[in-house]
């Protein structure tokens, strides 16, 4: 389902109602009639705020995010089930528990095993039967406690990430999952002369694999040349391998062929960000830009691949394949090797700063 500017009908009305409930402005004249300019700018503002791709179009990801954003703590009974419950009510729960010192893991809005364990621990502490189910009594107990607010990163989530980093012993044996985007029938973006994203990020992943392996890291790729796993499958693979780091490789594309430069993304939203992801992103971005690429900076995003992975994860987009000059660079094996060397250098620096001296 993709709803675009100019669309009409019930789906548009539903999108508008959700945006209005979230506090976004939509012109009266557009309400209930059409996906006009103010609906489009509300969608863009929502996408910006939620760390999504900002295109003003409601595709499956933006729709899922709109639905998740609509849930409030207490709206529904929450517990560990499959598929796991997702939404801002889970995020709020995690934030409150984490602020009280109960370790829910990342504030990611996914009710997983660690969140369930934190709920049971909280219930035990507050004299509620520890069933891990968030129903009225638990919501009431949480609501009765001072809410420490959204200003700072909740302490338990941050402590947990630091502990995970402490387990990294150095480059030898470091488990790194490399994720070349797209693949199989999905070529990703294509450059003016036909260089495909899927092809060049796969070649880059192979170079990076070699560069990291020389430092003793154990490197895994999420796909081969012909396969195209979903983002969920890629993240699940990294999680099951207990990877220490996850690096997704894509390239950018834009209608304006002048657009160029590098950008790096890590997991985060307006109320939480992965400290380790941000640091790794910063190092990778700096290192890649030393090759003379324009600095498109690092950004906190909620891309599924960053959200579903349980280790520090980044997505690097070193170039625009739509830019004729950068397309040539991406197609050049010597340049890909320099990129791989730059990224591997950033990983080494990250690891040496994570390992206590
Ligand atoms: Zn891509």
Polypeptide structure, described:
With 357 residues, the protein is an alpha/beta fold. The chain has three domains: 10-70, Muramoyl-pentapeptide Carboxypeptidase, domain 1 (Orthogonal Bundle), CATH 1.10.101.10; 72-148, PGBD-like superfamily/PGBD (Muramoyl-pentapeptide Carboxypeptidase, domain 1, Orthogonal Bundle), CATH 1.10.101; 175-354, Aminopeptidase, CATH 3.40.630. 44% of the residues lie in helices and 10% in strands. The protein has helices at residues 10-21, 37-49, 60-70, 88-99, 113-125, 136-143, 155-166, 197-213, 231-240, 275-289, 304-308, 324-331, 333-354, and strands spanning 175-180, 218-221, 245-249, 262-269, 272-273, 295-301, 313-317. Strands 1, 2, 3, 4, 5, 6 and 7 form a seven-stranded mixed β-sheet that branches. Helix 8 (197-213) links the parallel strand 1 (175-180) and strand 2. Helix 1 (10-21) crosses helix 3 and helix 8 (197-213) packs across helix 13. The mean pLDDT is 91. The site of zinc ion has 5 residues, from loops.
**Taking all residues together, what is the mean pLDDT?**
91
Q: What's the CATH architecture name of the largest domain?
A: 3-Layer(aba) Sandwich
Estimate the helix proportion, in percent: 40-55%
Computed CA radius of gyration, to the nearest angstrom: 22 Å
DSSP strand count: 7
SS field, number of helical segments: 13
Poorly predicted parts:
none
Structural class: alpha/beta
CATH superfamily of the largest domain: Zn-dependent exopeptidases
